[in-house]
Design goal:
With about 170 residues, this protein is α+β, with helices and mostly antiparallel strands. It is built from 6 helices and 5 strands. The protein has a 3-stranded antiparallel beta sheet with strand order 1-2-3, with helices on both faces. A two-stranded parallel sheet has the order 4-5. The mean pLDDT is about 95.
């Protein structure tokens, strides 16, 4: 079995599900295992809030005001942590626009690129993805649906599905 470098995985939690929603938490597990996660204090112009999204991720508006970090600072930290790399998301269709919204509003140029995880998954990995992910989630008994936990499960699912295809 060949040694394969793991992809850097990003996951974004948001204020809701529609076009008016915005990122409130970003979690990353880098290719080398380093982890990074931050809550974002919303810009004053970001007002949309969906209680259904809150019930899913468990992040309240009060939590963001108390513990969220200033978006410009988060963008700079993200660029420093990721550099000129590619990160992968299993929810690219929403995560990438949220990242673009964050960096654009903060007026910071994004140094990294976000791509859909499907770009690097083989057909065999895709066939096994949901069963392996569900099994790992149960095995790891992760109690919260948060960006850092999700990124870790996605990266471990990638590794396990890769190992299954190499057997």
């Amino acid at each position: 079995m060949r040694n394969t470098t793991l992809p850097t995985i990003i996951d974004v939690e948001a204020s809701g599900f529609g076009a008016a929603s915005y990122p409130i938490e970003i979690g990353i597990v880098r290719y080398d295992g380093a982890k990074w996660c931050k809550l974002l204090r919303p810009f004053d112009s970001w007002v949309h809030w969906d209680t259904k999204a809150e019930s899913l991720h468990g992040i309240s508006q009060q939590m963001l005001q108390a513990r969220g970090e200033e978006p410009h600072k988060v963008c700079v930290e993200l660029n420093n942590f990721l550099g000129n790399t590619i990160v992968y998301s299993d929810g690219w269709v929403v995560d990438n626009p949220w990242l673009i919204k964050l960096f654009s509003t903060a007026q910071v140029e994004m140094s990294f690129t976000c791509r859909a995880l499907e770009y690097i998954l083989s057909e065999s990995q895709m066939d096994n993805w949901h069963d392996v992910k569900n099994s790992l989630s149960a095995e790891l008994d992760v109690k919260r649906h948060r960006a850092s936990s999700d990124a870790m499960i996605i990266q471990q699912t990638y590794a396990k599905t890769m190992a299954l295809t190499q057997k």
